[in-house]
Amino acid sequence: MERTVLIIEDEKLIIVSTQMVLEAAGFRVESAVNGEEGIQKAKSMRPDLVLLDIMMPGIDGWETLTRLKRDPETSGIPVIIFTAREHARGHQKSSEMGAADYFRKPFEPDELIELVEKHAGQRV
Amino acid sequence: MVVVTVPRSSEASETACRGGSILDAVLAGVLAVDREGRITLLNPAAERLLELRSMTSIGRHLDAAGPVGRDGELIAAVLEDLARVTVERPSERVVEIHPGGSAELRYVRLRTRCLRDHRQESAGVVFEMLDVTEEHKTNQLKNQFLSIVAHELRTPLTGIKTFSTMLAKGMLGRLEDRQQQVVESIREQSLRLEHQIDKLVNLGHIDSEEYSQDLEAIDVVDVVRQALGGFEVTARDRAITLLAALPDGPRVARIDRSEVRRAVQALVENALKFTRDGGHVTVTVQDTNAEQLEIAVRDDGVGIEPRYHGRIFEKFFQVEDPLTRHHGGSGLGLFFVKNIVEAHGAAVRVESDLGRGARFSFELPIHREAGSDACVDAAAPITPQSAATPRVPAHPTTDDR
After folding, report:
1. Which residue of A has its CA nearest to B202?
2. Measured between alpha carbons, how far is B75 from B51 in angstroms, rounded to an integer?
3. DSSP string spanning A32-97?
4. β partners of residue B351
5. Nearest chain A Cα distance for residue B322, angstroms
């Protein structure tokens, strides 16, 4: 069965490039350009995985993660934090907040595919 | 730097008096305890910062002296240091405090050193503390600025790197040889730019008191393999043989993935830079013993004169004259390596001589044992709950990439 990844990211360029990588690996990809829209899409689509940016206008990635994990409808969807900025102890923080992993941009396409393969559908 | 000496003769009282008035006048707080953890010295600046009263505190155990303020954050940090510093491992860090339990946040630099008497025996511990709030705030602003700049640079770079990698790996169809060369070159340059941005951000972080590691128990071999990813084209173009001698199985250590990767990248970049075309660079990961593994980068390049071995790790230091030198670079690579490795509790070793290549190496502990050369007696009552908090909290990780 085709697995779906939801990218929550405000930069169009990142959405397009990430989408190309994941589609080449056989995933269906949807996107949302801010946290609010991302939460709505996560509820309606029930994706197998969410790739979540941190620095976004409106509610940021940390707040989006908190809301996704608080809502029983979305709390089981694995979330990978996907960031281009340094965050003090980001890996630890994201793990403590319930994210499945923490991934840095720019990235190696192979590493992204490997990571998404690992977590997609692994509902928690 | 405040030096506290232990008086040894009958003339000591005059010296102590003079020493005492100097200590009263300095800006830094100074506190000393003996081997049993009893307060032997407390100057007015330390009294203010720790919110203690010297009249009632001298001679008492540090943890029994009790802070006047509601929170006692600094004294908690002092107790924590007291439990963990050794002669070989002094401590220096910045502690956040709320004076008098107020909402105001201030930053205090706390340096903790073991004292030795004239017989070289442990004579207790001395703490220096200085309010560095203004400096700290300026540093935070600088780091925020660097972090935002890096984010703005990394976003377009993500597109360039992703597209060029997809093209180079044939994910978007097969290319002609010349097209392949061009996209590989674009990819290589994007990796180089990524590395430069990392260095820029690292410069801010390493200079900063906020510098903190993101430790995970991960496979070091995997991290080294990732670090080598960006250098194949450079090595091939210059006919340099870049070899990786890695163990078959994983070698797990508690490290900061990005930091160690950057350190290895910087060592490889450095080795390639100072190796002639047609030379060799070898990266090795091997077990030194049951508790340590070693990461080493060896080259057969121009080598470094022993007189420079100490200086090459200084920030911006270059062996060559900057106006006439042949090799590029910012002079930051080895500085980062040293800082990253030291933050992991290890040291970088360099073995080299002019014309004989160079070997840089460092060891990482697989198991960390507690030090046995504590500066205070084990029986001294110095282990309240606050002292047991490690600087980097241990946490389980599910990441086994």
Report:
1. A86
2. 9
3. ESSHHHHHHHHHHH--SEEEE-SS-SSS-HHHHHHHHHHSTTTTTS-EEEEESS--TTHHHHHHHT
4. B359
5. 31
pLDDT at A38: 97
Is B161–A85 a contact, with Cβ atoms under 8 angstroms apart? no
Average pLDDT, stretch B197-203?
A: 78
pLDDT higher than threshold 60 for residue A6: yes
Give mean pLDDT, residues B195-212.
68
CB B235 within 8 A of CB B242: yes
Structure-model confidence comparison of residues A91 and A118, the more confident one: A118
More confident residue, B91 or A38: A38
Q: Which long-range contacts (CB under 8 A, 24 or more apart) does B288-292 make?
A: B288/B363, B290/B366, B291/B365, B291/B366, B291/B367, B291/B369, B292/B363, B292/B364, B292/B365, B292/B366
Is A90 near chain B, with CB under 8 Å?
yes
pLDDT tier at B380 (50, 70, 90 boundaries)? Answer: very low
Residues of B in contact with A105 (CB under 8 A): 154-155, 158
C-alpha B282/C-alpha B245 separation (Å) is: 7
- For residue A57 the two structure tokens come to 């206008």
In chain B, which residues have their Cβ closer than 8 Å to the Cβ of A86?
A: 147, 150, 201, 205
Token couple for B217? 């128990």
Q: Does residue A73 carry a pLDDT above 90?
A: yes
Token output for A25:
């690996």
Residue A122 touches partner B, C-beta closer than 8 Å: no
**Chain A with chain B: Cβ pairs closer than 8 A:** 92
Contacts of A111 in chain B (CB under 8 A): 226, 401
The 8-class DSSP code of residue A106 comes to S
The number of beta carbons lying within 10 Å of the beta carbon of residue B225 is 16
End-to-end CA distance of chain A: 20
Task: Please state the pTM of the whole predicted model.
Answer: 0.61
Is the pLDDT reported for residue B175 higher than 60?
A: yes
| A121 near B CB under 8 A | no
The amino acid sitting at B30 is: V
Question: Which range among A16-25, A70-79, B122-131 shows the weakest confidence by mean pLDDT?
Answer: B122-131
Q: Above 80 in pLDDT, residue B213?
A: no
Q: How far apart are CA B298 and CA B333, in angstroms?
A: 16
State the nearest Cα–Cα gap between A108 and chain B, in angstroms. Answer: 7
Q: Are A48 and A26 in contact (CB under 8 A)?
A: no
Look at B398 and A104 and tell me if their CB atoms are within 8 Å: no
Q: Say yes or no: B395 contacts chain A, CB-CB below 8 A.
A: yes
Q: Confirm whether the ipTM is greater than 0.85.
A: yes
